[in-house]
Amino acid sequence: MDAKRILLVDDEALVALAAEDILISEGYAVVGPADRLESALRLANSEALDGAVLDINLAGDYVWPVADVLYARGVPFVLLTGFGKGLDLPPSCRLIPLLTKPVRPPELAAALEGQIARVRSANRRACRDRSSGGAVRS
Fold it and tell me: Model confidence over 103-131: pLDDT tens digits?
């Protein structure tokens, strides 16, 4: 079985390297890291992804456009921040796990795997609902 492909977006080289090491040690294949909004958007739109880890602030640009692309594609993600948890998040991101830097390996792995499992479960329910919707019962 192939490793899950995780987009990594962070503009701080040391943080990105540490997160990449965590993801690789957990058996993920890392796409990126992307350190700017433009490259993150390109990868989010073009790559086959199973999940993502997004730093909220990329050199002064918020990552919300990338989050929107991932959300529309059904790709689960977690958010990272160095600013603490008192941020005003957009409504679409308020239920997404928000981890503070420096992130601990078990915390990152558990949050990401939880998001992946949640989206898979929702997709399975949606498939069941669609497949049973046209059934004729006697």
Answer: 899 999 999 999 999 988 876 776 676 66
Please tell me the predicted confidence (pLDDT) of residue 89. 86
Domains and CATH numbers, the chain: 5-133 (3.40.50.2300)
Pairing of strands 61-62, 57-58: antiparallel
Q: Which two tokens stand for residue 83?
A: 């600013």
Answering whether pTM is above 0.85, one says yes
Contacts 24+ apart (CB under 8 A), 79-86: 79/54, 79/55, 80/10, 80/15, 80/19, 80/53, 80/54, 80/55, 80/56, 81/55, 81/56, 81/57, 82/12, 82/15, 82/55, 82/57, 83/56, 83/57
